[in-house]
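Consider what follows.

. . .
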Amino acid sequence: MTSPAKTNVCSPTTKPTLPSLSTAQTDQIFSKDFLCLPIPSRLRYKPDKPFHFGMLLNVSFGIGVTLVVANLYYCQPILIQLSASFHVTYDEVARIPTLVQAGFGIGLLFIAPLGDMLRRRQLILLLIALSTLLTIGLAITNNLLVFEITSFFIGLTSITPQIFIPLAADLAPSARRGSAISVVLSGFLLGILLARVLSGVVANYTSWRIVYCVSIGIQSFVLGGAYLLLPDYPVQNRDLSYFEVFRSMAKYAVTEPLVGQIMLINWAASACYTNWWVTLTFLLGGPPYNYSTVIIGLFGLVGMLGVIAMPFAGRLVDRLVPWWSAIISTMLLLMFQTIQTGAGGTNVTAVIISCFGLDVFRQTQSVSLSTMMFSISETARSRLNALMILSIFLGQITGTSLGTHVFVGYGWRADSALFMAMYVFQLAVFILRGPHCLGHRWFGYEGGLYFWHKLQSGQAIANNDPESAGGSTLVVATSEKRGAEGKDAR
């Protein structure tokens, strides 16, 4: 997706400034998207004048993520109406959300990493346009099979949020990268909540088809907003092939200690968080509580606390070394899980307290882990983000299947105790490496234990991309020290 309307601008002597590309690369200014669509001049990349990633643009990213991720969840509250409309059983329409999530997972693995080898403005515009067109098919079809196939492809093309997140990390100054990521992640959580509420209310008073008509309008709005606001950030890995994308992801997972550490922690944390919300329905719906589905649903509003808390968590991560904010969050998660294990099945106050703590500090932990992951390489953030989300997906599968089995077979306390042990496992993985351990070390505490950021923005560090063409180019410093100053990339 390149345009002939481009200008080569060589700036080998220019000192890198946030957010800029490696000085070893040749910058290109594109004037058109898809060979024909003019890019507003203010959004064209200029090597000598980096984009200002202010709060307005950051919030715009968050809003875009909110409205796009909603595509994955519109179908969930309207399954009964879909069953009646297509004259099929509940079991048959239950395939629809599964297909949507399957499409999203495949898109995450095979499309999201393309953000490291294609211009992300064009990739985002194309994906939103495709999901909008596919939604038209959902609104008009009368065939369940067509609806299911289209739902799969909507999930496949709705991975735009996973391109926005690493782009925000690239555009944001290192001093506020955690805050920038937290705003976009807040949009992701808000989109999940908004989709379920909007879909349920609209379908209740009109028809399920109107839900998708509204979605078409919303996505068209996002498409127009993306065209008018999204900066044209250049390609970071021009010589990277599609095969090398996956080879480098595998290489990161097995040779980069911090990647393996974060993926293990994220898998366990996602399993704990998913298990909590899945088994909470069983706990509150049975004795001694016997709550109605309406009251149980109100506990879901606690999810809003995560949305509210996440920007504050981002500010905290910007001030602290992310390792510390992550490990403190994990300790607090263990504390709230202990409260649940002790009294969750006998006292609703314990459930409410646990609900609050497990939600807020899981979001804080998530922002911290994302900031740590994006510090590994400036030119591979889309691939690193894909690895993170893959570990979250695997955690969700583990938490749902294992948690349900243990809860049904052995009761709420056994389930809660098991996942309390999972938090202990996360802490054990954390303490294998200190906050400033050298990048190639699997164990150790070299670099000390200092609490606050010391690295100044503008200091150069190694580009640690295993597939980087230069192999030892320097990029602008991120919020973490990646080994000794001036160390060549492996």
